[in-house]
Design a protein that fits this description.
The structure is a homodimer. Chain A is an alpha/beta fold and about 350 residues long. Chain A has three domains: about 5-50, 434 Repressor (Amino-terminal Domain), CATH 1.10.260.40; about 60-155 and about 290-320, Rossmann fold (3-Layer(aba) Sandwich), CATH 3.40.50; about 160-285, Rossmann fold, CATH 3.40.50. The first copy, chain A, is about 40% helix and about 15% strand. Chain A contains twelve helices and twelve strands. Chain A has helices at about 5-10, 15-25, 30-45, 50-55, 75-90, 100-115, 130-135, 160-170, 190-205, 220-230, 245-255, 290-305, and strands at about 60-65, 90-95, 120, 140-145, 155, 180, 215, 240, 265-270, 285-290, 315-320, 320-325. In chain A, strand 8, helix 11 and strand 9 form a beta-alpha-beta unit. The longest helix of chain A is centred in the last third of the chain and has 17 residues, at about 290-305. The radius of gyration of chain A is 26 Å and the shape is elongated. The termini of chain A are far apart. Chains A and B meet through helix 4, helix 5, strand 2, helix 6 and helix 11 of A and helix 4, helix 5, strand 2, helix 6 and helix 11 of B. The first copy, chain A, binds a DNA duplex (30 and 30 nucleotides) through helix 2 and helix 4.
DNA sequence: CGCTTTTATGTAATCGTTTGCGTCGATGCT
DNA sequence: AGCATCGACGCAAACGATTACATAAAAGCG
C-alpha cells in the first residue's frame, strides 16, 4: 500500500539499511548516495512509518493528557499550554476527557498505557487511592493536583491559600454569612479551598456552618441552582464563594434574574480566573491560577522524567494563586452592620 | 523491561501464539488454557503493546484533530464532541493547535501522517490550494470547512446564510451603517459571512462599503481595537457585526468602557453561539452553530471512511445556523431616522 | 608497497504483536 | 473400523523501521 524504505532501496539500488541511515541523517552513507536516496524518497512521496520506528525505539514521542472537562476554559488553557510545550519538544499529545467520571479516568489511563505514550499528565477526578494507582501505572506521570505520593510529581495551585485569601477578602467586604457553592464532593482541590475558607472564618472569630456549604458538579447550571436554593432560603447568605468560575457565572446569572444587587446586597466570587471572568460586563472577583505556567511546568517535568535529563527526583510544585478583586465583590450594605476588625 | 506475551507464554507453558489468541479473545484456544493465560497476564500486570499491534494491524486506532485555537470555546466544544465520539468507537484522539498558522498546520499534518493516525479532522487555516494538499495527504480526512474538493468530505455551517441572517436582523433593528469586524483575511468562513452580509445589504438597497470592513485575528483584543477604531471615527457605524463571538466580546468591552449604550445607540453581534455569549450579563446576539453536531458528524464521517462501512462517497454536509437574538441588538434610536421597509 | 585506519555498504537481528498454515489427537458419522 | 471433520496448539512469517556487526574498498602512513 504505502511506500516503505524497501521500495526506496530497490529504486535507488542500495540496501534498506542505507536508506534508513540517509533518511535519519546518520553518517555511514556517502553524500552522493544519500542525495540520490533523498531524491527517490521525495519522488515516491515517502512518509516514514512512525509506528514501526516507535516499536524499535521503544519511544512513541507521544504524551497523554487526561482532563475532566475541556469545555471549561480553565482546562482548555492548560491543554493549550501542554500541547504547545510538548510540540516544541517534538511530542504529540493525546487528549482525553473524563467528564469527572472515575471509571472513565481509569479506562483512559489503561488505554494510554496500551498506546505506549511516553508519559501522562493527569488531573485526577478524585482523591482515593492515589499512591497505589500511580505506582502500578508503569509510566511517568505528572499530576495536576497535589498528592503526597512518593512516586509522582505534581504541579498544583495552593487551593487552601486561595480559599483563605478569598474568604478574607469577602470578610473584608463586610460579609458574615458566606456560603460555599462547591464542586464535586470528592474533588480534593475543592475540599482544600473549603479548608482555607474555614480557616479564614475561624481566624475572624466565626464558626464554619455546614448549612452554608453545598456540593455539586462544576457547571453553571449547578451554580444557578445552588444560588437559587440559598437565596430563596429564610436566612440568605450575604456572599457566595463558588468552587470555580463556571459555577460563579451560573450564580451570577441567578442573581441577575432575581434582581439581586451585586455586590451591594450580595457578593459573588469564583475560583480559577478564566478569561471570561474579566469581561467588562462580568468582572467576577476570583482567584487566579496561572494556567499557562501550570501546563508548561507539568509538561517540562514530565519531559525531564522521560528523557532522564534532569535529576529524576519527584517534584512537588505548588503555585501561589492571586486574588483578582473585581466588580462582584465590594463593601456590602447591611442594616444590621456590625463593627468588625480585620488585619 | 516491560512484560510481553512471550513472558506470559513461558510462565504459562504455552506458545505465544496461544497467548495472543487468548488475550484477543479469538477462538483456537481451549477455555482451560485461556483462563490460565489470562490469570498469568493479570498476575504479571501485563499491558498489550499497542504499537506492536498497530504495526501488524496497519491501524492505529487513533484520529488526528487539528484546530486553530482550542482556547476558543467554539473549538473546545468541537474538540469535546470529536473526542467523545471517537472514544465511543474505540479511537483515541491526537489534538494539535495551529494558532492559525498555515505553516504549523502543514507541519502538523505531516506529523499526523507519520504517526499513522487512521484519519484526520481538520479546520483549515486558510483556503489556498485545498485540493492538491488533501489528495496527496494519503489519509482519510474530513474538513470542518466547506471545500469543493472531490476527494474530501466536509462538515460546515452555511456561513453565507449566517452572515445574511444576521445582517437582515441588524437592518431590521434600524441599523444602516453596519461595520464588519472580521477575522483573518484569508479565512474562507469569514469571507463567506462577509458575502452574506453584502447580499443582505444589497437586497435592501444598500451598497456594501469597503470602509466598513476590517480584518484581524479572532481575538477579543482585536475586537476591542477595531471597535475603538470604528467608534472614534468621524462617522461611526450604528452596528458592529463581528466575525466571531470572541471578537464581539472584545467589541462589547470597548463599548462598555466608552459608555456607549448597547443596543440603543449601537448594536453588536457575534457569530458562533458560544455558551458565554448567553450569560445574563452579556446576552450577545449571535449566530448559533451546532458545535456538537459538527464534531459528531465529522467524526462519524471519518470513521465511516476509515472502516469502509458506509458507501465511501465524499459527502458535503452544510448545516443551517440559527439566529440567536439577545440583548445586544434591538431597535436603535436615531434622530435622523429614515423610513425603511424590510420583509 | 604493505600495514593500519577509516569509510561505505550490506546482512541480519530486533522491537511485540497477529495470523496463515501444519500437525496431532479427539470426535462424529456411516 | 475407517474416514472426514474439527478443535487446540505450535511454528514461523509478516508489519516497517533501527542498528550492531561483518565486510570490502579506499585512504593514510612510514
Amino acid at each position: 500500500m504505502s511506500v516503505t524504505i524497501k521500495d526506496i532501496a530497490r529504486e535507488a539500488g542500495v540496501s534498506y539499511a542505507s536508506v534508513s541511515r540517509a533518511l535519519s541523517g546518520n553518517r555511514g552513507v556517502s553524500m552522493e548516495t544519500s542525495k540520490r536516496i533523498l531524491e527517490v524518497a521525495k519522488r515516491l512521496n515517502y512518509s516514514p512509518n512512525g509506528i514501526a520506528r516507535h516499536l524499535v525505539n521503544q519511544r512513541s514521542k507521544t504524551l497523554g493528557l487526561i482532563l475532566p472537562d475541556i469545555s471549561n476554559p480553565f482546562f482548555a488553557d492548560i491543554a493549550l499550554a501542554v500541547i504547545h510545550t510538548a510540540e516544541k519538544a517534538g511530542y504529540q499529545t493525546i487528549l482525553s476527557n473524563t467528564d469527572w467520571e472515575p471509571r472513565t479516568q481509569e479506562r483512559q489511563l489503561l488505554l494510554m498505557r496500551e498506546q505506549r505514550v511516553d508519559g501522562v499528565i493527569l488531573k485526577p477526578v478524585q482523591d482515593a487511592g492515589d499512591d497505589i494507582a500511580y505506582e502500578n501505572l508503569g509510566l511517568p506521570a505528572v499530576l495536576l493536583h497535589y498528592s503526597g505520593s512518593k512516586v509522582v510529581s505534581c504541579v498544583d495551585t495552593d487551593h487552601e491559600y486561595g480559599g483563605y485569601l478569598m474568604t478574607r477578602h469577602l470578610l473584608g467586604c463586610g460579609c458574615r454569612r458566606i456560603a460555599f457553592l462547591g464542586g464535586l464532593p470528592d474533588s480534593r482541590s475543592n475540599l482544600q479551598r473549603l479548608e482555607g475558607y474555614a480557616r479564614a472564618l475561624r481566624e475572624n472569630g466565626l464558626t464554619p456552618d455546614a448549612q452554608l456549604v453545598r456540593h455539586g458538579p462544576f457547571t453553571s447550571e449547578n451554580g444557578y441552582a445552588l444560588a437559587k436554593e440559598f437565596l430563596q432560603g429564610h436566612t440568605p447568605p450575604d456572599a457566595l464563594f463558588c468552587g470555580n468560575d463556571v459555577i460563579a457565572l451560573g450564580a451570577l446569572q441567578y442573581a441577575q434574574e432575581a434582581g439581586i444587587q451585586v455586590p451591594q446586597s450580595l457578593c459573588i466570587a469564583g475560583f480559577d480566573g478564566i478569561s471570561y471572568a474579566s469581561l467588562a460586563q462580568i468582572r467576577l472577583t476570583t482567584i487566579r491560577q496561572d494556567r499557562q505556567r501550570m501546563g508548561e511546568t507539568a509538561t517540562n517535568l514530565l519531559l525531564d522524567a522521560i528523557e532522564g535529563n534532569a535529576a529524576p527526583t519527584v517534584q512537588k510544585i505548588l503555585l501561589t494563586p492571586t486574588l483578582l478583586a473585581q466588580a462582584t465583590t465590594g463593601e456590602i450594605n447591611r442594616s444590621e452592620s456590625l463593627p468588625i476588625e480585620i488585619d
